[in-house]
From TrEMBL:
The keyword Cytoplasm does not apply. It comes from Pseudooceanicola nanhaiensis. The keyword Metal-binding applies. Keywords: Heme, Iron, Metal-binding. This is Diheme cytochrome c-type. It comes from the Bacteria. Signal peptide: none annotated.
Length: 299
């Protein structure tokens, strides 16, 4: 009987610790309190953040890329995730969200109802974003067309259906520290912000460990394609010998120095970076030339 009571006590204690460690944590309303969004500045955040690449309907072109109806499939080794409707529709989309709601989703990975969001949504990068940029993005997204498209359920199996486990995952991998610590010029600092935070380039170009966390020791050194075909390239100086001008031009036009053209998912990215200023594209290029070289992609 005593052994049973002891085991019961340990089980209850373990459950309480698990519940505490995995609780959804938010940035707090005070982080976003008093911020007034500017839609014009928010448009830059929108394109830098690549929102249309995932949240526009698959195959959308032209003005339809501004309808954030969702539906894009995001394959991973943990299952297939589907980008949700983030249009201003108050029922199907996020039209009822406050700036704090959007901020906590983007920077803490927590939905307004308190549930953990899957890191297929790159909040591990957006956590480095400035709260004012979140407010500006919120203002811009309110100007976009509404869509009543229903969200598609993610295709994941047990135990990944237990969202509470993501609390433990976040304690390991949700970190707002910069990878490039020595951004010594304004241009480098801007490039770092665009690449590491808003642009979330590392989410695709950096290999992951078995738990899905980014291997920052091989930052931007290339990674397996989660769709299962080929590899996402190494874009450090160890794998990309383009000049800063070459990189900036590619981000504007999609043309490589060899007059090839961006294809696949990168073509989507270029549609976003083409909307940025020449100065921002030059900042991204400067950052990519400054990061430590990874001579061979981690396998």
């Amino acid at each position: 009987m005593k052994a049973f009571v002891t085991l019961l006590f340990l089980a209850v204690l373990g459950g309480a610790v698990f519940w505490y460690v995995t609780r959804p944590g938010t940035a707090g309303a005070e982080t976003y309190a008093g911020l007034t969004g500017d839609a014009a500045r928010g448009e830059t955040v929108f394109w830098a953040g690549g929102c249309a690449s995932c949240h526009a309907a698959p195959g959308a072109e032209g003005e339809e890329r501004l309808v954030m109806a969702g539906g894009t499939a995001l394959a991973s080794s943990f299952g297939t995730f589907y980008a949700p409707n983030i249009s201003p529709d108050p029922e199907a989309g996020i039209g009822g969200w406050s700036v704090a709601d959007l901020g906590n989703a983007m920077q803490a990975g927590v939905a307004p109802g308190g549930a953990h969001l899957y890191p297929a949504f790159p909040y591990t990068s957006y956590t480095k974003a400035e709260p004012q940029d979140i407010a500006d993005l919120h203002a811009f997204m309110a100007t976009l067309p509404a869509s009543d498209a229903a969200n598609k359920a993610h295709d994941v199996g047990f135990p990944y259906t237990i969202r509470r486990l993501l609390g433990g995952w976040k304690s390991l991998f949700l970190d707002d520290a910069w990878v490039l610590t020595n951004a010594t010029t304004d241009r480098l600092a801007r490039g770092r912000y665009l690449v590491e935070a808003l642009g979330h380039c590392g989410e695709c170009h950096t290999p992951r460990n078995r738990l899905g966390g980014l291997d920052t020791a091989n930052w931007l050194g290339g990674a397996a394609n989660p769709a299962g075909e080929g590899r996402i390239p190494n874009i450090t100086p160890g794998g990309l010998d383009w000049s800063e001008a070459d990189i900036a031009e590619y981000l504007k036009s999609g043309f490589t120095p060899e007059f090839d053209v961006a294809g696949g998912e990168m073509a989507e990215v270029v549609q976003n970076t083409a909307q940025l200023s020449d100065e921002d594209r030059a900042s991204i290029a400067a950052y990519l030339k400054a990061v430590p070289a990874v001579e061979s992609a981690a396998q």
